[in-house]
C-alpha cells in the first residue's frame, strides 16, 4: 500500500500540479504603453498630439520617399501636375504621368491605387486625432481649458484632412470618432462632406477661441487656421468641378458623391466672405503679406524663410534633406548644394510649360529658343536675367549663381560640391523657392497656408460673380507685391486667365497647381499634353556640367515623359481598388 | 593490461580539447570494469540476415558468462575475447530469433540470423516513445543513418531530400552554413501560420537550426511523423508534421572506435550566363533604337564594337595616329589585349571557385550492462564558392566551420532505474561577406553582390589586373563610359568581412524507474534538459589596397597604377544574442501483454521555457502540455490507439489558453489472421487508418495576441510620420522635436487555436517473402480557424494591417498521397535494392476573409497557397499594326510595340489591369516529389544512387532575370540575346522566347510585368546522390594495422540535373522563390563531389 500511495503521490504531483503552468506560460505584467499610460500626463500626451499633426498635415507631401503606397510614389504634386519634370525612370512616377491614375497600381503597390494619395492612410491619421480627442480628458495635469483647446486642435486636424480628401475624391465617409472593426460607413455626398468640415471648424473655433500659442508651441492650430480651412473648403465648393449640376463624368444615381447638384453663385459669395475673414483675422494677429516694395526680397522672404509672417500654417518637419533619415520628403525640394547632389531633386527641374507662366520684369512675355534652332547658351543666360522677381526668387537657372542666395559661396555654381548639374536635369532650371538666403540650412517647412492664397481666392471669387473691380483689386495686390504692374482688363475671361496665371507663378510648387487644374476643369490644358525642357550642349563631353563656360547651346526638347496623359476620370482620384472591393465605397467614375 | 589500456587511451585523449576529458574519464571507468584477466581466446565473426545484409548492433555474448559480450559494428562484424572455457556464443538482435553457436574451436564464425516471425522486427521512434514497427498505425517515414551519411552535405535537411516520402524540399542558397533546405511535410497546410515542421531531437523540441548543424555521424535514425495519430501528442506544434531525430547510443560490448574523413569540392550547380561585351553592345544599341529615343550619345559606335569583338583598346587607325610611338610600340599596342574594352563574365569570375569541404568524425561507443556510452567528435569546414582572386583576408574568403560533439551515457546500475545523460553541442564559425550593417541574412547580402554584377556592363572594369585591385580609371575615361569600378572591387573592397560565431550546448538527463514491484509493466519517467545558445556577429572592414589604373598616355603599352595605401582595419560588434531553454518532462508509462491483449498507456506532462534578451516585454516564451496515449492490440491482429495532446499557449487568454488535440487510429494486420493463407507471394498485409486534430498557435511571430491594445512610442525618428516639431525658429536652429506615440496593436481576447483535422488511410503489403514491400498512404487534412487578419475590414477603420487584431477565420484543405515501393534481394554475394516513392500534396485555400472581388480569379480563396497570379500571355505583337490595337494598359505608360508580349484582356473590358491577372503556373513548392534509390552490393563493393525529382512546381522570373540594362547600363543575360524577338527573326520564322529588347523594360514596356510568359516549370529529375564504396573487412592486412574495417568511398550530391529548357540557367529547379531569388539575387546551389574513408578500430 505504501508503494501505491507513494506512486500516486508522485504521479499526481507530476501530472496534476498545474500551478507551475504560470512559470511556463507567463502573462506579462508590463505590456509597454497602453492608452491610459499615454494619456497619464500632459508630457506623455504630447507625443500623441505631435503625431496627430505630423500625420494629418502630411497630405499631398512626399513624406516617405521610396516606400509605396505613401503619396506620391517618389514624386510630388508639382511633378504630377507638370510644374516640374523628372528624369527618374525607376519609380512609379512615369507610369502615373504617362498612363494616368488607376485604381489598382502595379503589383508591387500591393493593391494600392496609382494616384496622388493612399486612401486608407487618411483614416489612420484621422484616427490618431480621434484617439487624442477621446482620451485627452484622462490627462490629470491639464486644465479643462487646455483640454478644450486640444480637442479643438484635433477637430481642426480632422476637418483639414477631410477637406484634403474632398479635393481629391469628392464626398467621402465622414469620421470624427475612433471606429471599431464592426463599424460600417459609406460615402457621404459632397454637400455633407462640406457641411461636416465646416461644422468641425465651427466647433473647434468655439473650443480654441482666441487662444494664441506661445513661441514654444508655434505651429499649433489657432483660429486663423480654422478660418483658412473653411475658406479653402468653401472656395473648392464654389469652383466649377463641384459647383454644377453636371458632373465631369456621369455617376448616376450617385452624382451627389462627385458634385453639388446645381450651380449657385451664393457659394462664391460664401467663399469670398470666408476668405475675407482670414485676411481680416490675419491683419489683427500678425499674419500679413510681406510687402515693403522690394518685390524680389519680399517674395523671397514670404516663401523662402522659416516662420515667415506670411505663412499661417506650415508642415513643421526639420529633418535634414540628405537622405530618408531625418525627413525624406525634403529630398524632393532640396536644392541645397550640400544635400541635393545625390538625391531626387537632382533629377528634377521646372518644365518649359511652367516657365511660360512667368513674365519678364516688364510684365511682357519672354521668348526662348524653340525646338528647331539651337541658340547659344548666352541667349538663355541673358533672357533669364530679364525675368520677373518671383522667377528669380523661385528658380535657379543653369550656370547662373542663384539670385536668392547672393554672394553665398555655398550656393555658388563655382563651389566644388555644387549639385546644379544640367546633365541630369529635366527642366529649364531648378526650383529653389524655399531657400531664400538659406546658408547651410538643409531643411524647410512646407507652407500649407500662405496669406496670398486668400487674396487670389478673393480675386477669383469676385471675378466669378462678375465684380471686376474687386477682382482686379485683389489680383493686383499680389501682382504689385510681385513687382508687376497692375492689370486693368475689365474682361471676365481675360481676367480669369490672368488670375490663373498669377496662381501658377505665385504658388509654383506649393501644391496648388494640380488641384486647381482639376477643380477649374482644365486638366486637359493645364496637365495633359506635351512637356518640354531645355536640352543643352556642352563645350566638352563632361559629367556634372555647371559653369556658364561649360555650356554651348540650348534648345527646346521633349522631357523624358514627352506627353502627360490626361483622362477626364482624373478630375477626381480613384479609391484603392482594394478598398472598393470591400464593398462600402462607390468608386469614382472612369476607374 | 589494465594499466596499458589506460595509458594508451590517455595519450589519445590529449588530442581532444579539455572538455572532452571529463567524459572520457567516465568512460575509462567503465572500460576498466570490462577488462578481463584470465586466459582468453579471440573470436571474430560476422552477423547477417537471411538476405546477407549486415546486422549492426547485434549482441554477441558468451553463453556461460553473459557479462562478457560485444556488439556488431557497422558492417556486422564483431571481435570478442572469451575465457577459454567458453563453449558457445549467443547472438541476439531484436526481431530475429536468438541463436546459439557452438564454438568447436573456430576462430571465425559466420552467423545468419533468421527473422523471428513471432517477434516484431523493428522499433520505430514515435512521439514520446517508441513502438514496434508492426504495431505502428500512424504515418511515419524513416530515414536511416546510412542513407544520411551518403550525402556529403553540411546540413541534415539537405540529406533528407528524396530519402523519405511525404517530404518536399526547396533550397534558398548554396552558401555554406546557410544552405539548408526548406522542408515541408505533406505540403503546406496553412496560409498564415508557421509552415515549418517541428524538430524533436532525443525527445526534446529543438530548432531547425540545431537539427541542421548536427553531425550526421551522431544520428541513429530520423523519423517523419505525418498524420494526426503520430503528431497529436505534439498538439499545438504538430500540425506541420514532426521530424524526430534519435542519436546513437552506446551498446554494451568492447569499445568500438571509428574515424571518418571526407574531402570534397563544391561548385555552382547552376548559374546565369551573361552576355559578353560584343553581344552586350549589339543588344544595347538595338534596345536604344527600339525605344525610339533620340540618344545618339548612348549608342556604342562601330569602332567600339570592333574593339569589343577583337579585345583591343585601340583601332588600327587610332594606333596609326599615335605618331609619338615607335613602330615597335605601335605593333605591341596593336597586340595588347583590351583593358578598357575587355569582356568579363563577372558572375563566373566571382562565383565559380571550386570550394573545398572537409568533414571528420571520431566516435567511440561501447560499455557494459551498467554503463553504455557513445562519444562523438566531429569537425566540418566548408569553404564558400566565392573567388578571392588570390588575395588574403578578403570578404570573399567565406567558410562555414563547425565542431560538434555528443556524449550519450546510459546508466543502469541501480535496480529498476535507468538513467541517461546526454551532453552535446555545436561550435560554429561562419565567415562571410557582410554589408555595412552586419546583417547576415541570405537575401539582402546576395542582392548586394549580385546586383553589382547584373548592373555592370561586362567591360566596366578589369577587376584585378596584374594582381592589383583596380578601383577606377585614372585620367581619361574610355568613351564607353566604363569607370573602372567593377563588381569585383565592390565585393573585395566594398564589403566587410562578417563573422558569426554560434554555439549551442545541450545537457539533458532522463530517468526511468520501472515499478514492476508494484504493478507489472508500470514505470515512471522524468526528463530535464537545458539548452544554451549563443551567437555573436562581428564585422571587419576590408582594407585591401586599391589602385587607379590608366594606360600611360605617352606609351599606352605601359600600365600605370596609382594608390595602394593600406588603411587601418576596424572590427565592430554587430549583434549579440544569448538564450537558454529549460525543458522538463514527467510521466507514467504502462506496458503489459496478457495473453493476446497488449496494452500500453502513457501520461506525460511537458513544460519548456525559453529566456532570451529582446523578447517582447522581457517575458520568457513558454509552452506547457499534457500528453496521453493508450494503445491496445489484440492477438497482433487488431491494433488501436488513442493519442492526445493538451497544450497551452501564451498567445491566448487564460480561458482559451489550452487546447485538446485528440487522434484515434485503427489497424488490422490481415496476414496474421488464421484464415489468411500462408504463402510466399503475399507475406504481410496491414491496413491502417487514423483521424485526429492538431493545432498551430503561431502567426507571424506575434505574441500575447489576446492582450488589449498597446501603444508604441518613437524614441527618435527618421520619417516625418514619426513625430513633429513645435516652437518658433528663424531657420538657423531647430525647434523642439516631439517623437510620436501611436497605436501599436489592437488585441482580440477571443483568439484561439488554428485547428487541423486530418485523416489518413494506408495499406502496407509485403510480397515474395518480404522481398518487395509496398506502402500506400492517402491523406486529407483541413485546417480551420486559421489565424489571420481580416482583409475585409474597411480602411476607414484606420488601422494598419499589422495593427489589426488577428482572428480565427481562415480555412484550408490539403490532400494527397504517398506511395513507397521497394524490392530487395540477395543472389549469392550480390545484394541489390531498388526503391521508389512518390509524394503528392495539393492544397486549396477554402476561406481567407477576402473582399468580394469582381472576378473569382482575383481571389486567393479557391486556389492553392502560393499560386502565382499574373497576366496571361498570348504570344507577341509581331507587327506595328498589331501593337497599335493593343488594349489600354494601366501600367508601364500604356506602351506597346512590335515585339512586345501580347497580354490577354481576360475580362474583355478593353483595359489591361489587376482584373486581368489570373492564376498562372503552380506554386513554388511542387505538388509532386518523387525519388528512386538504387543499391548494388557485391562482397565489399557498393554502388548506390538516388534520383529525385519534382513536378507541378513553378518559378516566376522577375527583375534582373527578365530585364536587361537595369539602371541604364546593366548587363543582359545570354538567353535574351539569343532568343529575343526581332523583325527579321519573326519574318524568317525562327524560334523566339524573349520579347524585343528595351533599354527600360520595367517602366518602358509592359514586358516586365508578372506574366505567364515568365512562369517557368521547375519539373526536373536530379541525380541527387551517388556513392561508390569498397569495404575491406576480412583482409589480413587490416589486423596487422589494428583495424577491424576500412571503407573507401566517393560520393556526390546534386551531380546531374535534367530540367526543362524554359528554366534558364540561373535557376536551379529546387530554388526557393522569394523576393530576392525572383529577381536573380541568387547564391548558386552547390554541386558536391566528395571522397572519404571510414576506419574502425
Number of strands of chain A: 9
Cα-to-Cα separation, first versus last residue of chain B: 18 Å
Q: Tell me the quaternary state.
A: heterodimer
State the major sheet of chain B.
Answer: 22 strands, antiparallel, barrel
For the largest interface, the chains and their residue counts are: A-B, 106 and 98 residues
Whole-number average pLDDT of chain B? 87
What does this structure look like?
The complex is a heterodimer of chains A (591) and B (1097). With 591 residues, chain A is mostly helical. Chain A is built from 22 helices and 9 strands. Chain A has helices spanning 2-15, 21-24, 35-38, 42-56, 77-80, 93-99, 119-135, 144-169, 190-208, 223-238, 265-285, 295-304, 337-340, 352-355, 377-385, 389-394, 452-464, 468-481, 492-506, 513-519, 523-526, 577-581; strands at 84-86, 311-315, 348-350, 375-376, 395-396, 430-431, 446-450, 529-538, 551-564. In chain A, the strands form 4 sheets. A 3-stranded antiparallel beta sheet of chain A has the order 4-9-8. Chain A has a two-stranded antiparallel ribbon with strand order 1-3. In chain A, helix 4 runs antiparallel to helix 7 (119-135) and helix 8 (144-169) packs parallel to helix 10 (223-238). Chain A is globular and about 85 Å long. Mean pLDDT of chain A is 88; it is low at 321-327. Chain B has 1097 residues and is mostly beta strands. Chain B is built from 18 helices and 54 strands. In chain B, strand 31 and strand 32 form a beta hairpin. Classes of the chains: A mainly alpha (591), B mainly beta (1097).
SSE order and pairing:
The complex is a heterodimer of chains A (591) and B (1097).
Chain A: H1 2-15, H2 21-24, H3 35-38, H4 42-56, H5 77-80, E1 84-86, H6 93-99, H7 119-135, H8 144-169, H9 190-208, H10 223-238, H11 265-285, H12 295-304, E2 311-315, H13 337-340, E3 348-350, H14 352-355, E4 375-376, H15 377-385, H16 389-394, E5 395-396, E6 430-431, E7 446-450, H17 452-464, H18 468-481, H19 492-506, H20 513-519, H21 523-526, E8 529-538, E9 551-564, H22 577-581
Chain B: H1 2-13, H2 19-34, E1 40-49, E2 59-62, E3 69-71, E4 77-83, E5 88-92, E6 99-102, E7 108-113, E8 123-126, E9 129-132, E10 140-144, H3 145-149, H4 156-160, E11 167-171, E12 181-185, E13 198-201, E14 204-206, H5 208-212, E15 219-225, H6 228-231, E16 242-247, E17 253-268, H7 277-291, H8 302-310, H9 316-320, H10 327-334, H11 346-351, E18 355-367, E19 371-383, E20 399-414, E21 417-434, H12 444-454, E22 464-465, E23 468-473, H13 487-492, E24 496-514, E25 522-540, E26 546-552, E27 555-563, E28 571-594, E29 597-612, E30 621-634, E31 638-649, E32 658-669, E33 682-696, E34 710-713, E35 723-726, E36 736-739, E37 741-745, E38 754-767, E39 772-788, E40 807-827, E41 830-847, E42 869-870, E43 873-876, H14 880-884, E44 888-889, E45 901-903, E46 911-912, E47 918-919, E48 928-938, E49 941-951, E50 954-956, H15 974-979, H16 983-988, H17 1001-1004, E51 1015-1017, E52 1020-1032, H18 1036-1040, E53 1045-1059, E54 1086-1096
Parallel strand pairs in B: 1-7, 13-16, 23-26, 44-46
Antiparallel strand pairs in B: 1-4, 2-3, 2-5, 5-6, 8-9, 10-15, 11-12, 13-14, 15-16, 17-18, 17-54, 18-19, 19-20, 20-21, 21-24, 22-23, 24-25, 25-28, 26-27, 28-29, 29-30, 30-31, 31-32, 32-33, 33-38, 34-37, 35-36, 38-39, 39-40, 40-41, 41-48, 42-47, 43-45, 48-49, 49-52, 50-51, 52-53, 53-54
Helix pairs in contact in B: 1-2, 7-8
Amino acid at each position: 500500500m505504501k508503494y501505491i500511495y507513494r506512486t500516486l503521490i508522485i504521479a499526481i504531483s507530476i501530472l496534476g500540479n498545474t500551478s507551475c503552468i504560470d512559470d511556463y506560460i507567463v502573462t506579462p505584467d508590463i505590456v509597454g504603453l497602453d492608452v491610459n499610460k499615454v494619456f497619464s500626463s500632459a508630457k506623455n500626451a504630447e507625443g500623441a498630439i505631435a503625431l496627430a499633426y505630423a500625420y494629418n498635415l502630411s497630405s499631398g507631401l512626399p513624406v516617405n520617399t521610396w516606400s509605396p503606397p505613401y503619396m506620391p510614389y517618389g514624386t510630388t504634386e508639382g511633378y504630377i501636375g507638370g510644374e516640374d519634370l523628372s528624369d527618374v525612370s525607376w519609380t512609379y512616377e512615369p507610369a502615373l504621368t504617362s498612363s494616368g491614375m488607376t485604381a489598382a497600381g502595379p503589383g508591387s503597390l500591393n493593391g494600392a491605387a496609382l494616384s496622388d494619395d493612399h486612401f486608407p492612410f487618411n483614416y489612420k491619421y484621422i484616427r490618431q486625432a480621434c484617439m487624442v480627442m477621446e482620451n485627452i480628458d484622462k490627462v490629470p495635469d491639464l486644465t479643462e481649458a487646455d483640454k478644450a483647446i486640444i480637442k479643438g486642435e484635433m477637430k481642426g486636424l480632422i476637418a483639414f484632412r477631410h477637406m484634403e480628401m474632398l479635393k481629391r475624391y469628392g464626398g467621402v465617409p465622414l469620421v470624427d470618432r475612433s471606429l471599431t472593426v464592426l463599424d460600417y460607413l459609406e460615402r457621404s455626398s459632397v454637400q455633407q462632406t462640406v457641411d461636416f468640415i465646416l461644422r468641425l471648424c465651427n466647433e473647434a473655433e468655439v473650443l480654441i477661441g482666441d487662444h494664441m500659442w506661445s513661441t514654444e508651441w508655434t505651429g499649433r492650430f489657432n483660429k486663423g487656421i480654422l478660418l483658412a480651412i473653411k475658406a479653402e473648403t468653401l472656395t473648392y465648393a464654389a469652383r466649377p468641378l463641384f459647383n454644377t449640376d453636371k458632373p465631369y463624368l456621369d455617376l448616376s444615381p450617385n452624382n451627389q458623391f462627385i458634385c453639388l447638384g446645381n450651380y449657385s453663385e451664393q457659394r462664391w459669395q460664401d467663399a469670398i466672405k470666408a476668405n475675407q475673414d482670414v485676411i481680416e483675422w490675419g491683419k489683427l494677429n500678425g499674419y500679413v503679406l510681406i510687402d515693403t516694395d522690394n518685390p524680389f526680397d519680399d517674395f523671397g522672404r514670404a516663401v523662402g524663410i522659416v516662420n515667415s509672417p506670411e505663412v499661417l500654417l506650415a508642415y513643421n518637419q526639420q529633418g535634414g534633406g540628405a537622405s530618408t533619415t531625418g525627413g525624406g520628403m525634403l529630398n524632393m525640394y532640396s536644392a541645397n548644394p550640400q544635400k541635393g547632389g545625390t538625391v531626387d531633386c537632382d533629377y528634377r527641374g521646372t518644365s518649359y510649360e511652367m516657365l511660360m507662366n512667368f513674365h519678364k520684369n516688364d510684365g511682357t512675355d519672354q521668348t526662348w529658343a524653340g525646338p528647331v534652332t539651337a541658340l547659344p547658351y548666352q541667349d538663355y543666360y541673358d533672357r533669364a536675367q530679364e525675368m520677373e522677381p518671383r522667377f528669380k526668387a523661385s528658380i535657379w537657372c543653369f550656370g547662373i549663381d542663384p539670385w536668392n542666395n547672393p554672394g553665398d559661396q555655398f550656393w555658388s555654381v563655382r563651389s566644388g560640391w555644387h549639385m546644379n548639374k544640367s546633365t541630369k536635369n529635366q527642366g529649364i532650371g531648378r526650383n529653389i523657392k524655399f531657400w531664400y538666403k538659406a546658408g547651410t540650412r538643409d531643411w524647410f517647412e512646407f507652407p500649407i497656408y500662405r496669406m496670398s492664397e486668400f487674396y487670389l481666392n478673393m480675386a477669383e471669387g469676385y471675378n466669378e460673380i462678375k465684380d471686376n473691380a474687386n477682382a482686379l483689386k485683389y489680383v493686383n495686390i499680389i501682382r504689385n507685391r510681385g513687382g508687376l504692374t497692375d492689370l486693368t482688363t475689365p474682361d471676365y475671361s481675360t481676367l480669369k486667365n490672368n488670375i490663373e496665371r498669377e496662381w501658377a507663378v505665385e504658388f509654383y510648387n506649393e501644391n496648388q497647381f494640380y488641384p486647381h487644374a482639376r477643380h477649374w476643369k482644365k486638366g486637359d490644358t493645364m496637365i495633359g499634353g506635351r512637356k518640354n525642357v531645355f536640352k543643352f550642349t556642352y563645350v566638352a563631353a563632361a559629367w556634372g556640367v555647371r559653369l556658364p563656360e561649360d555650356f554651348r547651346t540650348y534648345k527646346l526638347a521633349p522631357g523624358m515623359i514627352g506627353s502627360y496623359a490626361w483622362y477626364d476620370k482624373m478630375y477626381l482620384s480613384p479609391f484603392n481598388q482594394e478598398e472598393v472591393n470591400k464593398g462600402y465605397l462607390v468608386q469614382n467614375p472612369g476607374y | 593490461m589494465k594499466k596499458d589500456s589506460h595509458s594508451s587511451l590517455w595519450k589519445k585523449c590529449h588530442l581532444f580539447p579539455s572538455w572532452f576529458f571529463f567524459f572520457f574519464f567516465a568512460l575509462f571507468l567503465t572500460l576498466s570494469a570490462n577488462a578481463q584477466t584470465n586466459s582468453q581466446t579471440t573470436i571474430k565473426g560476422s552477423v547477417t540476415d537471411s538476405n546477407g545484409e549486415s546486422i549492426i548492433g547485434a549482441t554477441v555474448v558468451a553463453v556461460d558468462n553473459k557479462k562478457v559480450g560485444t556488439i556488431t559494428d557497422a558492417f556486422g562484424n564483431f571481435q570478442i575475447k572469451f575465457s577459454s572455457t567458453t563453449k558457445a556464443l549467443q547472438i541476439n538482435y531484436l526481431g530475429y530469433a536468438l541463436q546459439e553457436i557452438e564454438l568447436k574451436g573456430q576462430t571465425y564464425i559466420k552467423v545468419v540470423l533468421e527473422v523471428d516471425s513471432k517477434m516484431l522486427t523493428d522499433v520505430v521512434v514515435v512521439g514520446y516513445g517508441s513502438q514496434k514497427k508492426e504495431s505502428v498505425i500512424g504515418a511515419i517515414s524513416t530515414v536511416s543513418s546510412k542513407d544520411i551519411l551518403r550525402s556529403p552535405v553540411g546540413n541534415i535537411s539537405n540529406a533528407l531530400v528524396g530519402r523519405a516520402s511525404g517530404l518536399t524540399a526547396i533550397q534558398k542558397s548554396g552558401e555554406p552554413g546557410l544552405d539548408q533546405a526548406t522542408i515541408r511535410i505533406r505540403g503546406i497546410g496553412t496560409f498564415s501560420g508557421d509552415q515549418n515542421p517541428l524538430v524533436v531531437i532525443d525527445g526534446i523540441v529543438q530548432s531547425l537550426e540545431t537539427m541542421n548543424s548536427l553531425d550526421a555521424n551522431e544520428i541513429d535514425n530520423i523519423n517523419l511523423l505525418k498524420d494526426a495519430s503520430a503528431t497529436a501528442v505534439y498538439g499545438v506544434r504538430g500540425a506541420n508534421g514532426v521530424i524526430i531525430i534519435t542519436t546513437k547510443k552506446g551498446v554494451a560490448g568492447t569499445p568500438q572506435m571509428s574515424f571518418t574523413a571526407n574531402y570534397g569540392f563544391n561548385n555552382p550547380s547552376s548559374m546565369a550566363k551573361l552576355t559578353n561585351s560584343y553581344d552586350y553592345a549589339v543588344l544595347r544599341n538595338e534596345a536604344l533604337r527600339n525605344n525610339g529615343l533620340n540618344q545618339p550619345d548612348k549608342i556604342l559606335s562601330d569602332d567600339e564594337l570592333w574593339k569589343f569583338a577583337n579585345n583591343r583598346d585601340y583601332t588600327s587607325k587610332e594606333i596609326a595616329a599615335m605618331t609619338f610611338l615607335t613602330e615597335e610600340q605601335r605593333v605591341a599596342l596593336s597586340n595588347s589585349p583590351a583593358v578598357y574594352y575587355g569582356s568579363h563574365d563577372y558572375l563566373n569570375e566571382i562565383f565559380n571557385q571550386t570550394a573545398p569541404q572537409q568533414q571528420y568524425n571520431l566516435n567511440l561507443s561501447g560499455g557494459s550492462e551498467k554503463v553504455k556510452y557513445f562519444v562523438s567528435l566531429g569537425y566540418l569546414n566548408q569553404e564558400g564558392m566565392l573567388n578571392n582572386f588570390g588575395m588574403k583576408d578578403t570578404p570573399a574568403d567565406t567558410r562555414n566551420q563547425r565542431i560538434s560533439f555528443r556524449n550519450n551515457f546510459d546508466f543502469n546500475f541501480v535496480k529498476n532505474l535507468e538513467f541517461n545523460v546526454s551532453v552535446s553541442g555545436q561550435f560554429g564559425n561562419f565567415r562571410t561577406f557582410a554589408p555595412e550593417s552586419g546583417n547576415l541574412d541570405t537575401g539582402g547580402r546576395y542582392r548586394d553582390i549580385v546586383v553589382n554584377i547584373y548592373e555592370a556592363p561586362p567591360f566596366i572594369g578589369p577587376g584585378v589586373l596584374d594582381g592589383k585591385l583596380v578601383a577606377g580609371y585614372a585620367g581619361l575615361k574610355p568613351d564607353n563610359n566604363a569607370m573602372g569600378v567593377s563588381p569585383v572591387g565592390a565585393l573585395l573592397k566594398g564589403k566587410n568581412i562578417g563573422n558569426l560565431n554560434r554555439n549551442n550546448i545541450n545537457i539533458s538527463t532522463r530517468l526511468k524507474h520501472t515499478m514492476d514491484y508494484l504493478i507489472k509493466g508500470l514505470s515512471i519517467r522524468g526528463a530535464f534538459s537545458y539548452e544554451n545558445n549563443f551567437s555573436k556577429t562581428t564585422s571587419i572592414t576590408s582594407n585591401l589596397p586599391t589602385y587607379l589604373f590608366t594606360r600611360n598616355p605617352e606609351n599606352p603599352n605601359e600600365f600605370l597604377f596609382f594608390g595602394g595605401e593600406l588603411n587601418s582595419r576596424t572590427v565592430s560588434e554587430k549583434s549579440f544574442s544569448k538564450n537558454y531553454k529549460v525543458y522538463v518532462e514527467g510521466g507514467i508509462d504502462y506496458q503489459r501483454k496478457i495473453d493476446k491483449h497488449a496494452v500500453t498507456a502513457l501520461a506525460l506532462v511537458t513544460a519548456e521555457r525559453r529566456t532570451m534578451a529582446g523578447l517582447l516585454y522581457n517575458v520568457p516564451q513558454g509552452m506547457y502540455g499534457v500528453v496521453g496515449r493508450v494503445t491496445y492490440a489484440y492477438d497482433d491482429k487488431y491494433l488501436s490507439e488513442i493519442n492526445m495532446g493538451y497544450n497551452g499557449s501564451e498567445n491566448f487568454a487564460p480561458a482559451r489558453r489550452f487546447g485538446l488535440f485528440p487522434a484515434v487510429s485503427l489497424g488490422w494486420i490481415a496476414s496474421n489472421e488464421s484464415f489468411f493463407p500462408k504463402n510466399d507471394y503475399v507475406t504481410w498485409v496491414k491496413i491502417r487508418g487514423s483521424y485526429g486534430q492538431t493545432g498551430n498557435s503561431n502567426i507571424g511571430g506575434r505574441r500575447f495576441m489576446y492582450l488589449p491594445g498597446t501603444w508604441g512610442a518613437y524614441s527618435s525618428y527618421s520619417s516625418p510620420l514619426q513625430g513633429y516639431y513645435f516652437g518658433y525658429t528663424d531657420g538657423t536652429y531647430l525647434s523642439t522635436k516631439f517623437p510620436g506615440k501611436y497605436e501599436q496593436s489592437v488585441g482580440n481576447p477571443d483568439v484561439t487555436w488554428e485547428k487541423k483535422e486530418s485523416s489518413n488511410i494506408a495499406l502496407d503489403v509485403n510480397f515474395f517473402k518480404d522481398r518487395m514491400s509496398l506502402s500506400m498512404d492517402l491523406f486529407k487534412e483541413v485546417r480551420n480557424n486559421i489565424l489571420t487578419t481580416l482583409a475585409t475590414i474597411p480602411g476607414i477603420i484606420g488601422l494598419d494591417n499589422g495593427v489589426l487584431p488577428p482572428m480565427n477565420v481562415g480555412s484550408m484543405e490539403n490532400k494527397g498521397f504517398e506511395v513507397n515501393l521497394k524490392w530487395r534481394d540477395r543472389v549469392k554475394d550480390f545484394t541489390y535494392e531498388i526503391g521508389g516513392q512518390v509524394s503528392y500534396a495539393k492544397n486549396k485555400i477554402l476561406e481567407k476573409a477576402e473582399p468580394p472581388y469582381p472576378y473569382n480569379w482575383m481571389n486567393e480563396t479557391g486556389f492553392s497557397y502560393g499560386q502565382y497570379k499574373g497576366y496571361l500571355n498570348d504570344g507577341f505583337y509581331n507587327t506595328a499594326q498589331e501593337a497599335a490595337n493593343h488594349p489600354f494598359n494601366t501600367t508601364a505608360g500604356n506602351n506597346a510595340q512590335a515585339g512586345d508580349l501580347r497580354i490577354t484582356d481576360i475580362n474583355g473590358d478593353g483595359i489591361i489591369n489587376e482584373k486581368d491577372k489570373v492564376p498562372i503556373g503552380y506554386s513554388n513548392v511542387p505538388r509532386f516529389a518523387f525519388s528512386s534509390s538504387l543499391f548494388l552490393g557485391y562482397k565489399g563493393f557498393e554502388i548506390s544512387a538516388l534520383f529525385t525529382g519534382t513536378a507541378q512546381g513553378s518559378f516566376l522570373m522577375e527583375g534582373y532575370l527578365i530585364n536587361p540594362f537595369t539602371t541604364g547600363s546593366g548587363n543582359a543575360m545570354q538567353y535574351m540575346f539569343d532568343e529575343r524577338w526581332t523583325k527579321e527573326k519573326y519574318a524568317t520564322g525562327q524560334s523566339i522566347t524573349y520579347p524585343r529588347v528595351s533599354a527600360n523594360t520595367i517602366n518602358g514596356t509592359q514586358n516586365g510585368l508578372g506574366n505567364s510568359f515568365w512562369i517557368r516549370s521547375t519539373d526536373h529529375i536530379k541525380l541527387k546522390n551517388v556513392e561508390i564504396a569498397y569495404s575491406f573487412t576480412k583482409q589480413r592486412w587490416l589486423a596487422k594495422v589494428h583495424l577491424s574495417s576500412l571503407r573507401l568511398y566517393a560520393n556526390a550530391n546534386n551531380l546531374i540535373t535534367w530540367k526543362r529548357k524554359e528554366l534558364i540557367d540561373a535557376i536551379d529547379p529546387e530554388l526557393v522563390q522569394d523576393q530576392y531569388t525572383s529577381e536573380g539575387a541568387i547564391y548558386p546551389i552547390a554541386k558536391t563531389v566528395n571522397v572519404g574513408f571510414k576506419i574502425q578500430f
